[in-house]
Amino acid sequence: MKKSLLLASVAMLFAGVVNAGQLTPYVGFDYVNMAPNVADSLPENYDIGNINAGLRYEGAGALEVFAERSMREKSNNGNNVTRGRLYGYGADLLINGYDFSQASILGSVGYGRFTTKMRDQGGTRDETGNSLRFGVGGEINPTLNWGFRAMFRYSFSDSDAYKNAKEFSLGARYYFY
Fold first, then answer.
1. 8 A C-beta contact, residue 46 and residue 69
2. CATH code of residue 164
């Protein structure tokens, strides 16, 4: 009974915050260019499509989840041609550093799980790793519902395929007010 009352109280509080206009759900799409510090003969640059969804808390930041997939990239090393594709998912916590009237400076910290699928003359193999991501960027909101964001992220990974990576992303968000 106590757990039910606690759950009902939390649900009413959450509904009140959403109705007050402080929490705003959103969806978005980003183009990401990733340059990992690769091992062996893997591709050194990936073009990635990223879809994301999140909850923005007005004036403070947002919690965002993402899923992404790259184009198939190719690397030539003499007679050996390696093709690689990157898949990933994770979550980022975005913090508003400074708000202007229709723009904000953002910082981010997050977690990602990435899989690199590689194919070469030796066959097919997958490398999966966890990644800690840090970023900085900005967002412009020309209307109440639309936002356009640019971010730079640096990530540290425990994967054998790459140990760290630099990412630059450009994208759009639609906010459900």
1. no
2. 2.40.160.20
- Domain membership of residue 153 as a residue range: 23-175
The count of domains in the chain is: 1
CA distance 97 to 109: 13
Whether 7 is in a domain gets the answer no
Task: Return the closest-CA partner of residue 29 out of 51, 57, 1.
Answer: 51
Q: What is the pLDDT along the chain (177 residues), one digit of tens a residue?
A: 554 554 554 445 455 445 555 899 999 999 999 988 876 666 778 899 999 999 999 888 999 999 999 987 777 666 667 778 889 999 999 999 888 888 999 999 999 999 888 777 777 888 889 999 999 999 999 998 999 999 999 999 998 777 889 999 999 999 998
Total-model pTM: 0.80
